[in-house]
Request: fold
Amino acid sequence: MVQKRFSLPKSKRLLTAPEFDHIFSAGRRFENKHCRVFVTPAVKSEGKVAFICSKKVGISAKRNSLKRRLRELFRLNQHHISPTIDFVLSAKQPLLNDPFQVVNDHFIALLRKNKLLTHEVATH
Reply:
């Protein structure tokens, strides 16, 4: 049995301002109760991802906690997501309050609705 890797190496992260500018200007945006997602076809062959959170959400400890939850959502579901897309995931306040399984189900539903999954994922 082939074991899937669930790591998220630095090479798969958006890091530079031009990369962010490209996604925000040329990409599509959609959202649900927990997060806002910006997507665009990957500039290079392999897609990258970034996790952001507005200062409106609260102090840095809260923002970092929200970004950790977003990272975990993406990390656990990355094998179901199209690998040729660049993502910026922006956290919203309810992400911190709702149970992780509910957040995960809503995230999968958002990706499914916008045809970003490579294959069907079972939700709880």
Remarks:
- The first helix runs from residue 17 to 26.
- The first strand starts at residue 28 and ends at 31.
